[in-house]
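Minutes, structural biology subgroup

Action item carried over from last meeting: produce the C-alpha coordinate record for Yeast cell wall synthesis Kre9/Knh1-like N-terminal domain-containing protein (Thelephora terrestris). EB confirmed the sequence was re-checked against the source entry. Recorded below for completeness.
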Amino acid sequence: LLALTAAISAFTSPYTTSPVATTSWQASQPQTIQWIEKTNSPAPSLKDYGPCKISIHVGNSQQQTSLQLISPSTDASNVSSLQFTPDPTIGLNSDQYFIRIKSISLKDPTSPQHPALAFFAKSQLTGMTGTFTADEQ
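Output recorded by EB:
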Protein backbone atom coordinates (compact mmCIF):
# COMPACT_ATOMS: atom_id res chain seq x y z
CA LEU A 1 0.00 0.00 0.00
CA LEU A 2 2.88 2.37 0.70
CA ALA A 3 4.12 2.01 -2.88
CA LEU A 4 0.59 2.52 -4.17
CA THR A 5 0.13 5.56 -1.94
CA ALA A 6 3.41 7.09 -3.12
CA ALA A 7 2.56 6.47 -6.76
CA ILE A 8 -0.95 7.83 -6.45
CA SER A 9 0.01 10.81 -4.32
CA ALA A 10 2.33 11.92 -7.11
CA PHE A 11 -0.72 12.39 -9.34
CA THR A 12 -3.59 13.33 -7.09
CA SER A 13 -4.88 15.71 -4.50
CA PRO A 14 -6.08 15.90 -1.69
CA TYR A 15 -3.02 15.76 0.53
CA THR A 16 -4.09 13.92 3.66
CA THR A 17 -3.01 15.40 7.01
CA SER A 18 -4.88 13.34 9.62
CA PRO A 19 -4.72 10.51 10.46
CA VAL A 20 -1.01 9.85 10.05
CA ALA A 21 0.88 6.57 10.44
CA THR A 22 1.28 7.03 14.21
CA THR A 23 -2.43 7.72 14.80
CA SER A 24 -4.36 5.40 17.08
CA TRP A 25 -8.13 5.81 17.20
CA GLN A 26 -10.59 4.36 19.68
CA ALA A 27 -13.63 2.74 18.05
CA SER A 28 -17.02 4.17 19.03
CA GLN A 29 -15.42 7.59 19.70
CA PRO A 30 -15.77 10.56 17.32
CA GLN A 31 -12.69 10.96 15.08
CA THR A 32 -11.74 13.55 12.47
CA ILE A 33 -10.05 13.10 9.10
CA GLN A 34 -8.46 16.13 7.40
CA TRP A 35 -6.93 17.01 4.04
CA ILE A 36 -5.51 20.07 2.27
CA GLU A 37 -4.78 21.12 -1.30
CA LYS A 38 -1.45 19.70 -2.45
CA THR A 39 0.69 22.70 -3.41
CA ASN A 40 3.37 22.91 -6.10
CA SER A 41 2.08 19.78 -7.73
CA PRO A 42 0.89 18.85 -11.22
CA ALA A 43 -1.90 16.94 -9.45
CA PRO A 44 -5.53 17.71 -10.11
CA SER A 45 -6.86 20.36 -7.75
CA LEU A 46 -9.41 19.72 -5.03
CA LYS A 47 -11.93 21.46 -7.29
CA ASP A 48 -11.12 18.88 -10.01
CA TYR A 49 -11.47 16.09 -7.45
CA GLY A 50 -14.95 17.33 -6.60
CA PRO A 51 -17.45 14.99 -4.93
CA CYS A 52 -15.78 11.99 -3.31
CA LYS A 53 -16.74 8.75 -1.59
CA ILE A 54 -14.78 8.36 1.65
CA SER A 55 -14.47 5.07 3.52
CA ILE A 56 -12.33 2.91 5.82
CA HIS A 57 -10.49 0.06 4.10
CA VAL A 58 -8.02 -2.74 4.73
CA GLY A 59 -5.87 -4.37 2.09
CA ASN A 60 -2.89 -3.70 -0.11
CA SER A 61 -2.07 -2.05 -3.42
CA GLN A 62 -3.71 -4.89 -5.36
CA GLN A 63 -6.83 -5.59 -3.32
CA GLN A 64 -8.69 -3.25 -0.98
CA THR A 65 -11.81 -4.02 1.00
CA SER A 66 -14.18 -1.29 2.14
CA LEU A 67 -15.28 -1.83 5.74
CA GLN A 68 -17.14 1.35 6.66
CA LEU A 69 -18.58 4.16 4.59
CA ILE A 70 -17.74 7.54 6.09
CA SER A 71 -19.40 9.66 3.38
CA PRO A 72 -21.09 8.67 0.11
CA SER A 73 -20.42 12.11 -1.42
CA THR A 74 -18.33 14.91 0.07
CA ASP A 75 -17.08 17.75 -2.15
CA ALA A 76 -13.35 17.78 -1.41
CA SER A 77 -13.06 21.37 -2.65
CA ASN A 78 -15.65 22.71 -0.17
CA VAL A 79 -14.88 20.56 2.88
CA SER A 80 -11.45 19.87 4.36
CA SER A 81 -12.39 17.59 7.24
CA LEU A 82 -15.04 15.13 8.32
CA GLN A 83 -15.96 13.77 11.71
CA PHE A 84 -17.16 10.19 12.00
CA THR A 85 -17.29 7.36 14.53
CA PRO A 86 -15.40 4.14 13.71
CA ASP A 87 -17.70 1.12 13.97
CA PRO A 88 -16.11 -1.40 16.36
CA THR A 89 -17.73 -4.36 14.56
CA ILE A 90 -15.83 -3.90 11.26
CA GLY A 91 -12.72 -5.79 12.38
CA LEU A 92 -10.04 -6.55 14.94
CA ASN A 93 -7.73 -4.24 16.86
CA SER A 94 -5.18 -3.56 14.13
CA ASP A 95 -2.82 -1.01 12.59
CA GLN A 96 -3.88 -2.03 9.07
CA TYR A 97 -6.81 0.35 8.56
CA PHE A 98 -6.68 3.25 6.12
CA ILE A 99 -9.04 5.88 4.77
CA ARG A 100 -9.55 6.00 1.00
CA ILE A 101 -10.93 8.99 -0.91
CA LYS A 102 -12.39 8.07 -4.29
CA SER A 103 -13.42 10.83 -6.70
CA ILE A 104 -16.88 10.23 -8.10
CA SER A 105 -16.17 12.04 -11.39
CA LEU A 106 -12.39 12.54 -11.82
CA LYS A 107 -10.39 9.74 -13.45
CA ASP A 108 -6.80 8.82 -12.64
CA PRO A 109 -4.68 10.70 -15.21
CA THR A 110 -2.37 7.69 -15.66
CA SER A 111 -5.18 5.10 -15.85
CA PRO A 112 -8.34 6.81 -17.09
CA GLN A 113 -10.36 3.61 -16.72
CA HIS A 114 -10.01 4.04 -12.90
CA PRO A 115 -11.22 6.80 -10.59
CA ALA A 116 -8.76 9.19 -8.96
CA LEU A 117 -7.89 7.94 -5.48
CA ALA A 118 -6.13 9.35 -2.44
CA PHE A 119 -5.08 7.34 0.59
CA PHE A 120 -4.47 8.25 4.21
CA ALA A 121 -1.63 6.48 6.03
CA LYS A 122 -2.42 3.17 7.66
CA SER A 123 -3.40 3.79 11.25
CA GLN A 124 -4.53 1.84 14.28
CA LEU A 125 -8.05 1.22 15.53
CA THR A 126 -8.50 -0.07 19.09
CA GLY A 127 -11.58 -1.15 20.99
CA MET A 128 -12.66 -3.25 18.02
CA THR A 129 -15.04 -6.17 18.53
CA GLY A 130 -15.31 -7.66 15.03
CA THR A 131 -13.24 -10.09 13.01
CA PHE A 132 -11.54 -10.10 9.62
CA THR A 133 -12.51 -12.52 6.87
CA ALA A 134 -9.76 -14.65 5.34
CA ASP A 135 -9.60 -12.22 2.39
CA GLU A 136 -9.31 -9.19 4.67
CA GLN A 137 -6.50 -10.86 6.65
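Discussion: Strands lie at 15-18, 24-26, 31-36, 51-59, 64-75, 81-84, 94-108, 111-119, 123-126.
Next step: EB to file the record with the rest of the batch.
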